[in-house]
Amino acid sequence: MTLRLAGIDCFYGNVQVLRGISLEVAPGEVLCLLGRNGAGKTTLLKTMIGLIKPRAGCITLDGRELTRLPAYGFARLGIAYVPQGRRLFAELTVEENLTIGLMARGSGDEARERALALFPALRSRLTQISGTLSGGEQEMLAIARALCLEPKLLLLDEPTEGLMPSMIQAILAAVRELKSQGVAIVLVEQRVESALSVADRIAFLETGMLRAIVRPEAVHADPALVQHYVGVGPGRR
Amino acid sequence: MSFGPHLFLALLEGTVTAFVLALTALGLSLVFGVMRVVNVAHGEFFMLGAVLAWAVSSLIPASPALGFLLALIASPLAVGAVALLADRLVLRRLNYAPEATIVATIGLLYILQQLVLTFYGPYARPVTAPISFRVQFPWFGYSGYKLVVIAAAAALLAATWYLLMRTRIGLVMRATQYDRETAQAFGIPVERVYSGIFALGAMLAATAGVLIVPIQQAHYLMGLDPLLLSFITVIIGGLGSLRGTLVAAFVIGISDGVISVFFSPTLAKIIATLFVALVLVFRPSGLFGSARA
Ligand SMILES: Nc1ncnc2c1ncn2[C@@H]1O[C@H](COP(=O)(O)OP(=O)(O)OP(=O)(O)O)[C@@H](O)[C@H]1O
Ligand SMILES: [Mg+2]
After folding, report:
1. CATH number for the segment(s) B3-282
2. In this prediction, does ipTM exceed 0.95?
3. What is the pLDDT of residue A124?
4. DSSP-assigned letter for residue A132
5. Are the C-beta atoms of residues A25 and A186 closer than 8 Å to each other?
6. Which chain B residues are within 8 Å of A50, Cβ to Cβ?
7. B168, B179, B190 ranked by CB distance to A72: nearest
8. Is A99's CB within 8 Å of B171's CB?
9. Digit-coded pLDDT (tens) for B118-138
């Protein structure tokens, strides 16, 4: 499924946060969003899952217009969201969080098994209250919960934030695996090197505007690009 | 009567109060917990339940038991429909904003009260209890109907607990309570969940109203006391904590019964209110509330 955004403007009250964003994500493609804190990355993902309605522009999925679809309709179409800061249902158990993920669509137990196969560590914790999981386990659960929808399009907002290197690698490996299955992925990532290692294209967001969309090779060839758009060098971890 | 039997009677009375209060307060607590709406009109749903019970049961004057049974089903359903209407026409339009909904539900309180005054009148009307047997203890006889009230309320509390903790609908409600936005991202139609919770809360209060009306008589101002006591219960129990609400209902209900029997009902209300003030000073989030509530 191809998601297409055209000329998206978003506001919080009177403050404009996204300005004329147009982009496209195709099946089996990883699009990485880079940008400083406050650039509007989270807002852009929330627009893609329908939680924020744009004041101008339109969103289509394989040509079908989603701009005015209520937020709860997006999950049914196969768009799944891993929020920044995980946003688990903290007082529910691991199992119950997965059950919520299974509700909107997907093949039920099969989808749950596949999500757990990707993160086997969760299997022994199914009855634990999810708020008491470690940070890494919480991130795995947030991703597994989204995978229960068997998404065609997966939106990941800083899934490696605050995790140790081996955990980051596990999550990036999961992203590659999903990509190989043909899932379209939008990944917000602060670590430039992580982004470069999985991305097919990199989009630079600056104060709500899309400055450039480039291939990772372009960044390898000219590291100053990142410095230019995000204000940090590619050496940052 | 000597002290022992007298205390036993007080505890019985307190238990009846506690169960009816638990039912009413649970509705208020659910609505606040999931929707963050302080429903000032909650007592009016209780009153409406009682008044409609009178109206329904007077349709079948020949058989009080049948009439009451019909009222027990029809009255909460009708009140649930009123709540759905209020949710659609008022709360949803205010986007469930906490301050706005307080003012709006105050308005709803007066609208419901005045409608009942207009169509039902200022009377206090009794409803015949569906059963009239007395349970004979060695020291006194006790209304069998009050024991039925205890059993019915306990069954409803258990059913509500089961709904919330053991069913998919309950899981959806709890997920909505913990994170409304993320719930939406997972396909949960939050506004429909809110409508359902508001109706459920109103129906719990209405059922309590139906159960109480053979003991208390239906009157258009009878919603104020349960509203006050429910608020006290929910504050002491910790806002949004169901377990806390139930425990607090028992503490308040039983102490209310005991103090009312030995001293006076007014003193019981004074002490309960004082207790709330103390809880608010020393444990602002309630006895069972978490600090963030
Ligand atoms: N609910 C809100 N109300 C008002 N302003 C908001 C709200 N959420 C975000 N903003 C503002 O919108 C801008 C973009 O925020 P957003 O969260 O999209 O940034 P971000 O790129 O995800 O940042 P970060 O890297 O820190 O996560 C910021 O200036 C932020 O202050
Ligand atoms: Mg963000």
Report:
1. 1.10.3470
2. no
3. 96
4. G
5. yes
6. 184-185
7. B190
8. yes
9. 999 999 999 999 988 899 999
